[in-house]
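Feature request, filed as a ticket because there's no other form

It would be nice if the structure record came with a short human-readable summary line next to the tokens. Right now we just get the raw output. Example of a typical job, pasted below so the devs can see what we mean:
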Amino acid sequence: MNLISSKELTEKHAISYQTLNFYTTLGLLKIQKRVGNRRYYDEDDTVARFGQIAQLKEEGYPLRIIVKQLNKEMVQQPK
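Raw output as currently delivered:
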């Protein structure tokens, strides 16, 4: 697992900190580790999730449907 901080994630993948926080709050992204005030995400999982979100947005789905769909997939995936 390749962990990346929220700051690195926003810089490397050109998303705003607000978007990252919003997606995390909605349950679209999972924090893997916390150190003090810093949050770390699994980079590969997060990048894959950004791709899924972008694809569904491109297809015209509203964010509330995207959240339902992707969170449903998250629950169904075996660990």
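Something like this underneath would help us a lot:
Helices lie at 6-12, 17-25, 43-58, 63-76.
Residues 45 and 65 are 20 Å apart (CA to CA).
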